[in-house]
Specification:
With about 110 residues, this protein is of the alpha+beta class. It is about 40% helix and about 30% strand. It is built from four helices and six strands.
Length: about 110
């Protein structure tokens, strides 16, 4: 059995253990709307990009840019695909901005 976690234009699919199984795009859902026989398993993209909880902000930014999206699922580790949540590009931008501001303030103090 698979469960779904809907985030804006995509649905993250997890199994009964909370492990990330893939993503279904909102466009795929709307295209299959008239087809009463389609299941989530038919629509899920299991090779979806993810961010690992221990990734650096830099790696997460690179992953989002490479995926061409504004949000990615966050899993516990590469071996443990437990879905912990999501990270958005805007959150990463804030983190980078704060790091730059803090670095600038440090330089001015010296």
């Amino acid at each position: 059995r698979q469960r779904q976690m809907c985030i804006r234009d995509r649905v993250y699919v997890i199994d009964d253990d909370g492990l990330f199984a893939g993503v279904v795009a909102g466009s795929d859902l709307s295209e299959s709307n008239g087809n009463g026989t389609a299941t989530i398993a038919d629509l899920v993209h299991s090779s979806a990009s993810v961010v690992v909880a221990s990734d650096t902000v830099e790696n997460a930014v690179r992953a989002i840019l490479a995926a061409g999206t504004n949000r990615l699922p966050v899993v516990r580790s590469t071996d443990d695909q437990f879905l912990m949540g999501t990270v958005a590009a805007v959150d990463l931008l804030r983190a980078v901005n704060m790091a730059l501001l803090n670095a600038d303030a440090e330089v001015k103090i010296r």
